[in-house]
């Protein structure tokens, strides 16, 4: 129910320092050659550079890493998400097959918890062909996922195949790994993006007297081996394309890559059915400067020691909604504590508390519940957002009037759960 952790070693610290200098040297050479780069380009290098990027080399999740995610705190989180997918599967008439597609699956903890639920409800899913598809760019993390989900029994696929690795879960479900969502085969699918969009590269813009200017990263002329933020002297292609005419904020962060991925998800759901669940830090088009770094669970200067810290920015859900371009219906964002409460976390906690014999487990359960639900911790900081086919929410035979009551079952998590 709650997860114990192990501590970090000093070797990683030393590796981190040398990597920082290598990544910094690489960036300084690049900036001297090309001039300032966008924040998006800086993030891309720092996080996913093949040789020195934070995710490609390390990806520090868990207590020994740089940040802890909800699935690492409590198994209940993943179980409730597993139930959400099954509830949607039932609501859409129990299709003969579905794919569970997770974007950026971390250590595989969340998928593992979801598969446990699928296994517990095996009699319900007995006539359904379930498969798992993981979209992961980090070789290090895909190894950790394979160990967690299959016990390490995987085959690497030949180069020409879309999946670079295949295996079978401990419960007998086929799992495939891909580098890009476009490689995942089409079909009725449930998509999951938990703390995925916040790590995608953002462009930053500042409103000035001369109009919108893009925030760039450059070498500090006073300290030649340090980086600093500067404003573009004139508008850039990004300012022309990404600032909405109705924008009222003075500082805006836009993640075009998130827009592209949401468009792909919306197209797939529109064509093949299914649903997408996004859980992340975020806001509904209200926040301004949210770009930050994490190292050893502490805030870290985003421009210092690139490649050794996780860089993240809050997800703008209003932008994601806009980028679906009406292909799907959207629900949320709603706060994590509301979503989990609607999904029955309180009931699940009571059952686990009744079944646990020792005080330590009791305390750990209550502690992890508090981490997930407390508004000052993760309860209000994380949001849930869903993409669903239009017919899932509206009855096509009726004119869309507020008074017309749809016979469709409510979407779990986004409304109060009534236990019959």
TrEMBL record:
GO CC terms of this entry: mitochondrion
Organism: Rynchops niger (Black skimmer)
Function: Arginine methyltransferase involved in the assembly or stability of mitochondrial NADH:ubiquinone oxidoreductase complex (complex I). Acts by mediating symmetric dimethylation of 'Arg-118' of NDUFS2 after it assembles into the complex I, stabilizing the early intermediate complex.
Principal cellular location given in the protein's record: mitochondrion
Family: Belongs to the NDUFAF7 family.
Keywords assigned: Methyltransferase, Mitochondrion, Transferase, Transit peptide
Catalytic activity: L-arginyl-[protein] + 2 S-adenosyl-L-methionine = N(omega),N(omega)'-dimethyl-L-arginyl-[protein] + 2 S-adenosyl-L-homocysteine + 2 H(+)
Entry's Gene Ontology BP terms: methylation; mitochondrial respiratory chain complex I assembly
Name of the molecule in the record: Protein arginine methyltransferase NDUFAF7
SUPFAM superfamilies per UniProt: S-adenosyl-L-methionine-dependent methyltransferases (SSF53335)
PANTHER family: PROTEIN ARGININE METHYLTRANSFERASE NDUFAF7, MITOCHONDRIAL
UniProt superkingdom: Eukaryota
GO molecular function: protein-arginine omega-N symmetric methyltransferase activity
Pfam families in the cross-refs: Methyltransf_28 (PF02636)
InterPro entries associated with the record: NDUFAF7, NDUFAF7_sf, SAM-dependent_MTases_sf
Segments crossing the lipid bilayer: none
